[in-house]
Design goal:
The chain is an alpha+beta fold. The protein has 10 helices and 10 strands. The chain has a domain of about 170 residues: set domain protein methyltransferase, domain 1.
Length: about 280
């Protein structure tokens, strides 16, 4: 068991190294004062200060061309075209991104392959909607949000069969229902829920649609975050908001969220010190 854990850790280190090289080769500018690694992180991996960092320092910049979204992926003309747009309702804005992620995840020549290679498995993402039914019902009973989790699960499954499958059948050149299965759809949905960012830029339906931001999604969450993501016209920048000592972890925030909402969307809780936690009476 220990050998297996060590092997997985070495594999992840190798994948992170490949990802960092990919970032460098694609003009994702990383400050020398930080690095992405397992050691020093509160979770699977994170961003750690290699030197003391002052407030308002730029930690990295991500060119907009490296954002993974329907309009940048390898089948952008299809996913942003009128055929698919006409097949979607205002409540299905995630579908093009889910299809983009499934396509790139299974494409060995994808531009984003080093990024997709560090996507956590569904077991690591661990949102309650993907737990076995018996586990979910047992652990969430009486929490007050078990019905919301069940609704999320059913919506994703319904969306796959009623929206995603007809689109994939229409574009068989790029999709295969055996590879691009419900299981993979759920995996990518979990990835979006836990790792995506939403810019205040409405989609064609007038809703804000999430995008995947390589490097930015490596940062773990803390309600007392010491960095924030800023959206610029040409690039996105992660900027420090506090002093960060050498060896300290760089944290973003996923929002002012109670533990139940963190668990539902991200698969973890911050603990009893979460200042945003609430109790229903």
């Amino acid at each position: 068991m220990a050998d297996e854990k060590k092997e997985k850790s070495l594999e992840l280190d190798s994948a992170i190294s490949s990802f960092l090289l990919w970032c460098h080769d694609n003009d994702l500018k990383l400050n020398n004062k930080v690095s992405s690694m397992q050691k020093g992180s509160c979770h699977r991996y994170g961003m750690v200060a290699m030197e003391d960092i002052s407030p308002d320092e730029c930690l990295f910049k991500v060119p907009r061309g490296l954002l993974l979204e329907p309009k940048t992926c390898g089948i952008s003309k299809i996913l942003t075209g009128k055929v698919i747009q006409n097949m979607l309702s205002q409540h299905e804005g995630w579908v093009p991104l889910l299809l983009a992620l499934m396509y790139e995840y299974t494409n060995p020549t994808s531009l984003w392959k080093p990024y997709m290679d560090i996507v956590p498995g569904i077991d690591i993402l661990d949102q309650p909607m993907f737990w076995p039914d018996e586990t979910r019902q047992s652990l969430l009973q009486g929490t007050g949000f078990e019905d919301d989790v069940e609704d999320d699960k059913q919506r994703i499954e319904r969306q796959y069969f009623t929206v995603a499958v007809p689109i994939m059948k229409k574009f068989k050149k790029f999709f295969d229902l055996k590879r691009h299965s419900l299981s993979l759809y759920k995996h990518m949905a979990a990835f979006i829920m836990a790792y995506s960012f939403t810019e205040d830029s409405p989609s064609f339906h007038g809703n804000n649609v999430p995008v995947m931001v390589p490097m930015a999604d490596i940062l773990n969450h803390h309600s007392n975050n010491n960095a924030r993501l800023e959206f610029g016209e040409e690039e996105l920048s992660m900027v420090s908001t506090q002093h960060i000592l050498k060896g300290g972890e760089v944290f973003n925030t996923y929002g002012q969220l109670a533990n139940c909402h963190l668990l539902q969307s991200y698969g973890f809780v911050e603990g009893p010190d979460n200042p945003n936690d609430t109790v229903s009476l």
